[in-house]
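Internal ticket - ligand job 278, 2-acetamido-2-deoxy-beta-D-glucopyranose:
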Amino acid sequence: MRISLAAVIALLATGVTGAPTVDEGKDADAIMDQIQSEAMGALVKAEKSTPRRQGSECSVGNAHIRRDWEKLGQQEKLDYIRAVQCLADTPPKLTQYGWANKNRLTINLGPITPRMDGLSPVGSIFEWNPRCLRRDLTMAASRNLNAENLLNLTVGHASHNVQLFQDELQGTRPDPPFLGMHGSGHFSMGADGTDIYASINDPAFWLHHAMLDRVYWAWQALHPAKKGKIAGGTVMREPDSPPAELSDLLDVMGLDNNKPIEDLLDTLGGTPLCYIYG
Ligand SMILES: *[C@@H]1O[C@H](CO)[C@@H](O)[C@H](O)[C@H]1NC(C)=O
Ligand SMILES: [Cu+2]
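stdout (structure tokens):
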């Protein structure tokens, strides 16, 4: 079933529901497809009216396309898995970061903030702590990974500004408390997936985070006037630090050059990002 986004927006405009409601999870793919095509349409339109950033060659037509796993063919899926395995056999750029080479499901990093039974915290993010990757899959946590939340984030109440959007996505809106799309994905994986540093060990993390980035990308495309804004936020784990500014450098700990936040907000900015989802 294809649901018209225009119809959803019209429904929202009535103010009756406050947030769009949809039947069940089965609608999520159809809605994502619809949001995807609206986002692409908006990007193409924006490109016609806004001059390209000076010195940038990046455009919708030549951008890299990050494709949905569900849309990959059999061979492409096998290639992806092979690439992940190749990465597992590649020496890490940060000495202790990464998987042990011999056994691909042996992980090392963290955990430092375990939330699940059986995960004992270690002293530092990078402490050498080889162990088997653990998952503890649960449906209980996936309640906010649904079509309703997706609509709320992209065209509903939570899409009205970046503060509402990020609070809804991160599950940090105060009332009523909930995990949000981001936390829901982590807690659905359970075990190592719930640790702020160790969760990246699990290849499923990358699919989850790519999807979060895709939802953010779609939100930006559908709300071009707000896409370059950031809100609230202090440095993670330092609640007393001043609110982040667009010119603040994002520390990638030696994996690449640190960049100011503003250079990384536009996926078509060419500074250096140049990608779309497809
Ligand atoms: C949509 O997001 C808003 C803003 O965060 C929130 O107050 C509201 O409860 C959400 N609606 C649904 C149905 O999740
Ligand atoms: Cu995460």
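Auto-summary: The two ends are 19 Å apart (CA to CA). Residues 182, 186, 209 surround copper (II) ion (ligand 2) (CB under 6 Å).
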